[in-house]
Amino acid sequence: MEKMIYEIRGLSNQNDDLLLNETIFHTSNGYVGVRANYEEGYPQGYDTIRGTYINGFYDIAEMKQAEKLYGFIEEKQTILNVADSQGVKLLVDGEEFSMFTGTVLESRRWLNMLEGYAGRKVIWRSPKGKEIEILIKRMTSFFQKSLFTIEYMVKALNFTGKIEFISFHNGEVMNYSNPEDPRVASESVKNLYPFDVRIAQEASYIKARTARSGLSVCTGVKNILTGEGPLFREAVSEIDVNGFLVIHSLKADIEKERTVTLTKYTVFSDSIRCEDVELHARKEMAKAVSVNLAAWYERQKDYLEEYWDNCDLEIYGDDDLCLAVRFNLYQLIQSVGKDRYSNITAKGLSGEGYEGHYFWDTEMYIQPFFILTNPDIAKNLIEYRYGTMEGARENARILGHNRGVLYPWRTIMGKECSGYFPSGSAQYHINGDIAHSIVAYYLATKDLEFIAQKGAEIIFETARLWLDVGNYHKGNFYINDVTGPDEYTCVVNNNYYTNVSAQYNMRWASRFYYLLKENGAVDKVANKLQMTEAEIKEMETAAECMYLPYDEEYGINPQDDSFLSKARWNIGNTPKEKFPLLLHYHPLYLYRHQVCKQADTVMAHFIFEDAQSIETIQKSFEYYEKITTHDSSLSTCIYSIVASKLGMKEKAYNYLGNSAKLDLFNIHKNTRDGIHTANMGGNYMAIVYGFAGLRLKEEGLFLAPLLPEQWEGYRFKIKYEGSKIMVQVKRGTSTFSLLSGEAKQIWIYGKEYLLQDTIILTEEVER
Question: CATH class for domain 5-288?
Fold first, then answer.
């Protein structure tokens, strides 16, 4: 496969570039993530976000409220930076290697997305003229998820002498803080306390416990030195007397044109997933060193070969965009949790932005990708929501609801972490988002067994909440005082997106109830929840009577009851330096204007497109387009999808535009803080759900491809009901191929076909 390696040559030592590359070249596997700091570190005075994170591992932090009103959140969960094992200093005949001293003759870094590692190569001349070639490979294993490795190879180019590796294992770490950035902690607080360190079987183990959450973690480090030809070596490990720092010193003779290699194994173990963290870490270390590193590389490659075979997406005619999209898909598999204890954070495992919280991003932007390419991972994400249902039930009671569940807007372990309720807890639509993702999983897999076991319970309990939060008025079912996706318009009545998602949620509660009943599988969940058919009928009635705002004059769905009565914000006359608006205008000032941070009603027209006519969708799109700032990275991909639906190819292309390149090319100049995982999933949707027109419906799989003028073509693979399908679109030809599995009925441009082998259409149908 081409275009699967991203490389930078002639690296800059500017601080912003170093921070950016810490993100771009980070390695993670969904369990553990390590930012790509220089192993040898930076000189004093350089800023760095030096971090290693475990997905779902957290502590409790205070969230101070100016007024202690009932139900206000006063504590939150926050992801923790755990023990640092990146550090490796290199001495060459006593001279310390540094990118900031001596002469760097060559420097490059790359990310190999086929083989699953980050690489770094440096050719360096020391101040005294000793020349070495350094090659470093870093990997977090998809096969053994506790394992992170650094392979550090040094070749002597013009001398014979001595080298020394000083390898660090540091348990004294803290989270990054920045008082100027609302997405991370404003001050450094010690959350993780090491309490035990020991050296056993040439490996060091550091145990630490959290300050308040009662969790513990153990990291193990083992260093192995190998070399070409006869190798004199000496290894000494000692514990620093001033703290929980283990220093491993490994010395060796090195001959000219020969290579000496340090292989550094790190394993992680946490008490969320096991009882005895040290015992588990020791077992993981024994497993890690039981085979050579080459075997781990091979397994990594095999894992990714299967991954790309299921999901690869190629764009013909735009190499930069194709590389950026593949980078995004690689980051998604790196970031997504692969067990029921974790999910996917707004920054993946590349940084501490948004404190490692999980949002609706998962269900609405990321899960659609996994549903179509790796449904087992999508199932894990649903299982995480199932496992935190008790917290969602408690959250509903706190907000005054006597039945149902209300999932928290942002969380790690299931409790609400949103300190500002107007744009946090008030976003009730998260219930509809989670319900929608379960329906989408079912439509793609027809896995009714999983629905009976877990999915239906979430659907029923989220649907119950709407009956409690809503009320009837003049024959319509209203949902008042909630916030939709647009965080520049908060706490409103009858937000269109929220109402239509609630309607969808309740209709599918009814659909699943009777579907399970037909298959003799409803009694278990109904008895557990004490749910009756009368309650299902109540949901059906509420859904049928749901009030969906509509304005006759404009022919659009107003975002909410009061939206059209507000003054319109003049985006064109707003100085560029005033964006994003939330950093320059008081929330109340924003709330009083027609201005959108991101797609809201327009997003509803994508997700719940059957609720309105195409004429209404088009008029709404054109109306909201003029007042949307796209200050959220979640916005332009949605506008691209709806533009595609409306046949606006040029607009669809422009909205996709640079958003796909957001992180790889640092478009917004903030990738240093971490990747934007939801945007990455959104870019996939903009191509597959947008340009290809893919939809999952009860009637089947629908496709309606169109091709932007700027591209020569594109192709992608999906899984549908156990079969693998490839779609390839080129100028004048669309090809649909059944790669494996049973034949499927699919819909192309509204016409039904039986896909048994290959279907070739020779013209594009106008939408």
Answer: mainly beta
